[in-house]
Design brief:
This protein has 12 helices and 8 strands. It is of the alpha+beta class. The protein folds into 2 domains: 3-69 and 129-314, Thymidylate synthase/dCMP hydroxymethylase domain (Thymidylate Synthase, Chain A), CATH 3.30.572; 71-127, no CATH class.
Length: 334
C-alpha cells in the first residue's frame, strides 16, 4: 500500500498537533522545522492517493524546468496555471508594468499568450532566474547536463549536485526557489537485486533466475540503482509538498531511465514545514482519510526516448492511479 501517504499524513499531524503559529508574507502558518520524508521508488510511483493529484501539472512543470524555461507561456499553453499568480505578482513589481497597473490577471495572461515584450529585459510571463534557469545555465554551466555525464562515466562521484538557490538573484525573481538543491547517488546491484528487477520487468523470469552477471548484462538488466535527495528551505506541506515528492520522483525515474539504472530511494530534507491557516479545513479532511485504501500507481516511460531533454508529455504515462477525491485548498503565493 501507499507508504508515502502514511508518512505524509504523519507530517501533517506533527504540524497540526505540535507546530507553532508564525507570521509569513502570505498569512499565518502553523510550522515545524527539520523533517525528512522518503520512499522506495521500486515499490511504485510516489503520487499521493489520499487526494487526487494534478498529474498533468506535475509532468509539465518538470518538463518546463528541464527546458531551462523561466516564462509561464509554455505552461499556460498546455493549460497548466500553477505559476500564474506568481508571474502576475512579479509583473506588477516591474517598472515596465507602470502603464498596466490596473490590469486583470486575465488580461495579463493574454499578454503572455501574445508574447508581449515590454523591454529588452522583460517579456510578459517572465519569472526571473528561477529553477530551470539555474538547473541548465548557472553562469554558463549546465548543472543537470554535467550530472548526466558523470552518471555515465563516474557514477560514484560525490559532486552530482544541482543548486537552484542563488543569493545574488533571490530578491530579483518572482519567488526565490523553495527546493534549493538536489543530489544523485548510485550503488552497485548484487545478483539477487538484479534478479529481483528481472522478475518484475521481464517475462520468462523462471528461465533466467539462476543467471550470472554476464547473462544479466545480455538481458539488459541494470547494474546500478539511482537515488535522489532534495533539500527544501520552505515547504507548503498542504499543497506544495505532494507536488515536490511526485516531481522529484519523476526526475529520478527519468534520469535512471536515460542512464540505464534502476530508480531506488527518494529522500526529502525539509526545512520550514508549514500549513497556512486558510488550509486547515482541507488538512482536517485529509487527516480523516486512510493511506491504505489504494496502491501506488505505475510510471511508464517511452523506451525509445533516452535523452532527458527530449521527453514530451506523451512520453510519460502514469497507470493504475486510483485515489480519494481532490481537496480544494487555497494556494498562497509570495
Amino acid at each position: 500500500m501507499s507508504k508515502i501517504d502514511a508518512d505524509y499524513l504523519y507530517l501533517l499531524e506533527e504540524i497540526v498537533n505540535g507546530g507553532c503559529w508564525k507570521d509569513s508574507r502570505s498569512g499565518p502558518v502553523r510550522s515545524v522545522f527539520g523533517k525528512t520524508i522518503e520512499c522506495n521508488l521500486q515499490k511504485g510511483f510516489p503520487l499521493l492517493t489520499i487526494k487526487k493529484m494534478f498529474t498533468k501539472g506535475v509532468i509539465y512543470e518538470l518538463l518546463w524546468f528541464l527546458r531551462g524555461d523561466t516564462n509561464i507561456r509554455f505552461l499556460t499553453e498546455h493549460n497548466v496555471h500553477i505559476w500564474d499568480k506568481d508571474a502576475f505578482r512579479y509583473f506588477k513589481t516591474r517598472p515596465e508594468s507602470e502603464p498596466y497597473r490596473d490590469i486583470t490577471i486575465e488580461a495579463f495572461l493574454k499578454m503572455v499568450s501574445d508574447e508581449e515584450k515590454l523591454s529588452d529585459a522583460y517579456t510578459a510571463g517572465d519569472l526571473g532566474e528561477v529553477y530551470g534557469a539555474k538547473w541548465r545555465n548557472w553562469n554558463g554551466i549546465d548543472q543537470l547536463g554535467n550530472i548526466l555525464e558523470k552518471l555515465k562515466t563516474n557514477p560514484d562521484d560525490r559532486r552530482m549536485l544541482c543548486v537552484a538557490y542563488d543569493p545574488s538573484e533571490a530578491d530579483r525573481c518572482a519567488l526565490p526557489p523553495c527546493h534549493i538543491t538536489f543530489q544523485f547517488w548510485t550503488k552497485k546491484l548484487g545478483t539477487m537485486e538484479r534478479l529481483d528487477w528481472l522478475q518484475r520487468n521481464l517475462d520468462g523470469y523462471d528461465e533466467w533466475k539462476y543467471a550470472t552477471h554476464d547473462k544479466l548484462d545480455e538481458l539488459g538488466v541494470p547494474r546500478r540503482a539511482l537515488s535522489l535527495s532534495w533539500n527544501q528551505r520552505s515547504v507548503d506541506v498542504a499543497l506544495g509538498l505532494p507536488f515536490n515528492i511526485a516531481s522529484y520522483g519523476l526526475l529520478c525515474c527519468m534520469v535512471a531511465h536515460c542512464v540505464g539504472m534502476v530508480p531506488d530511494m527518494l529522500i526529502g530534507f525539509l526545512g520550514d514545514c508549514h500549513i497556512y491557516e486558510n488550509q486547515m479545513d482541507g488538512v482536517d479532511e485529509l487527516l480523516k482519510r486512510s493511506p491504505y485504501v489504494y496502491h501506488n500507481p505505475e510510471l511508464v516511460l517511452n523506451q525509445d526516448t533516452k535523452d532527458l531533454f527530449s521527453f514530451t508529455y506523451d512520453d510519460i504515462k502514469i497507470r493504475n492511479y486510483e485515489s480519494f477525491p481532490p481537496v480544494e485548498m487555497p494556494l498562497s503565493v509570495g
